[in-house]
Amino acid sequence: MQLPHTWVDSDASLESAARRWAGASVVGVDIEFVRFNTYYPQAAIYQIATDEAIDLVDATAIEQFAPLIDLLDAAHVLKVVHGGGEDMEVIHTHLGMTPRNVFDTQLAACIAGHVWCIGYAALVSARLGVELSKEAQRSDWLARPLSQQQREYCLQDVAYLIELQNILRREIERLGRLDWFEQEMRHWLLRESAVPEDRYLRMAGVRQMTSRQQAVLKALCEWREHEAMRIDQPRQWVVRDEHLLKFARQDSLDRNAIGQALPPRVARRFGRGLLDAFNAGQAGELPTEVLRPFAKGSREIVKSILKGVTKLAQELNVPPELLGRRREIERCVRAWQSGDRQPDYLSGWRGCYLRSLFDAAFDAEQCV
User: Fold this and answer.
1) What's the pLDDT at 196?
2) Full domain range(s) for residue 100
């Protein structure tokens, strides 16, 4: 698809681009960014496609982004993205807002029966028969000027979004799944704009920890997250996961133990913060969600539900992950066992299919 394109690298040219966008009811949006050595992604290029043209907005050269913010915030303009979680993070970090009226073609493709998290190039190939190059994907997008290969990649990455949206919307409407998509998009936007508070629950070995150790790990992870934000460095550059896990398992912690575990420079820089976070976790309240290894009966319940999810996904011709991945099913089982018969994950369209699997699995367990 050969659309005319404009390189937008000044406030004046951005205002001109906004005038071109004024009549659009739908735009494709993609962002190239860099995150080599920072916590926050660094916006490099915003790609905005209409039916008629593509604008490549140089984020390193613009000072006043109001015209772009107005477009992303316009409720009457549909913004089409693909796998846009990181794009939403870039926009939130760089522009301080969350776009409205967003259509994610990756999610739509999943609901329409494609594999889980299908890539943009694979979807373009499957739906449009066009093969895209990925050679420039890992480029340094902050370097200027862009190479011809980089520019072509930017154009291709956004050129087919509107066409894909048209195809996928018709398909999910034909399948009667538009309400699935709309519910998922609402949850998706809320999830992508939220700060992760349960990162510690995803770390290896957390289930074998006591409640207090999990409380300490949670405090350590929250401290690291805020410290990484403050100095704008990757969280693993602050203190690595394995060190937080080691500290959380200890009954006590002092500067000597920190110095023995960490490189000297890291221990000097972050030792006081680590100690304060460790002590706060030791003295504070226990987490509202504490993970424990499942007992045999509970493992069988999870296994039964996942087996039912796989069978149901085949019948619906959707990837099983759309209905429920293991981690989500386990959290629902824990909520169910704690007395909450309506876990949030089982609300909406998904609950209509999964609730019966939970009922059957728990009824079978009670009959044993």
Assistant:
1) 59
2) 5-192
